[in-house]
Predict the structure.
Amino acid sequence: MNKANSIADQAYWKIKKDILTCELEAGAQIVQAQLVERYQMGITPIREALKRIEQEGYLQSIPRYGYLITPITIADVQNIYELRLILEKPSIKLAVIRAPQNALEKIAEMANFTYEFGNRESYLNFLSMNSDFHVSIARASNNKKLADMIARILDEMTRIFNLGLDLRDSGEEMCREHILLSDALLRRDTVLAEQILHDQITRSQERVIEKLSERMSHAPIPGVSNA
């Protein structure tokens, strides 16, 4: 990797991190000159980073004006959580049927993790471990395409998850949910495991929608709507 690419990668990760943690708010307009000053980097790596992030769907190009950070809507939240349930519940059932016991034991070892409330760096670490946990369950189903789809959905939801984590300290509650889910898998109790997963996903959705509603009630901020 040459130096130019390395700097472009640094710009990409810094900007994307700030979008995912909502430091750069959904719906906000940004221009290259502002980011050059914010990150103390040249215009070329910033431009390359923005193009990559736009391709991932987090930015929308506005000719002659820069970029708009893709808004978050309540409808989007409802749709993507519905998709999680559609994909992850079957992965639970298949994992119970197909996974060797040692694979389920490894998943149980992964279940005990949490985050520090108010620490956005901690949020990203938590969400990375959360993704690893759920994707490991999906991979235990021995359906690679299903596991890959779940991994993509969880990655896409990082910014949405951050909103829910910032509502209140739910770290212990979520840790307990993961441990209960892994225990149900170890016992190969499909009904219980699916119910725990359903409740966990439903509570996560409720937290995110509550946070969006809270922000909308205080002020009509850009990028958050009922659409």
Q: What stands out?
A: The chain has ten helices and five strands. The chain has a mean pLDDT of 91. The longest helix spans residues 190-218. The domain at 3-70 is CATH 1.10.10.10 (Arc Repressor Mutant, subunit A).
